[in-house]
From TrEMBL:
CDD domains for the chain: VOC_BsCatE_like_C, VOC_BsCatE_like_N
Coiled coil segments of this chain: none
Residue ranges of domain VOC in the record: 10-126, 168-283
Highest taxon above the source species: Bacteria
Organism from which the protein derives: Rossellomorea aquimaris
Official protein name in the record: Glyoxalase
Amino acid sequence: MNFHQHPYTHINHVTINVQDLKRSLDFYQEVIGFSILSKFEDTVQLTADGETPLLTIHQPENVIPKQPRTTGLYHFAILLPERADLGSVLNHFAQLNIPLGSSDHLVSEALYLNDPDGNGIEVYWDKPHTIWTWNGGQVEMAVDPIDARAILAEGEGEPWTGLPSKTVMGHLHLHAADLDETAGFYTKGLGFEVVSALGNQALFLSTGRYHHHIGLNTWNGAGAPKPAENSVGLQSFNVHFPNQDERDAAATRLKSLGYQVEIDQDGSISAEDPSGNKMFLTV
């Protein structure tokens, strides 16, 4: 089941700020396995299939390092199509001696790492949705150890050649200043549902009963400030709607809730959540 296409609203593109564009481009090509889709003086669009932009890296003027204890990016998550792909990339990371975290979330198996600027990255695959456990409207997730040997065995004989063409942006996990207020923006405004909670520290939201398209946490502190615009970290992301009517209805709901919605001359629609995370509403 594909939770990252029509009729589901999902995250399909993320833009991050970096300190050194060339250094970051080398990392995202050689370590993560993206290809260049378009390249400009201060910005590069990256792709897995040669057609679809998934990640944009941007070097702002007078860029400053990642600021601690702010809202913004916790990690963006790259979803691989098969477990064998995760085995291949795990072997690739091991050969490069990349420091990694990992977890079996019951719904997925995931690897965690940082780019050269400290931007968080998750690389994962989803277990079949038919084996996910739901209790009412809540999906069961955990933070268990992965079976690295089994994952590597799945990828045996599959040489690493970069990201598979069917790779997508799986989800986005954000630092929030106020968990409930920020969650309300996504549920009441954009139409996501809360499908899991980690105490009063983190919430996970999705459409279509996915385990999560968006994660929110207050691990940088309740009331954390928004980072500077020229700081390393999240610049913006796309919330992709199945059609224009649903996109426009979401924009109208945000306005009715008192949030500022910007409509540019080209028709693009943008907004900021209560924690200062900027997004574009796309179709």
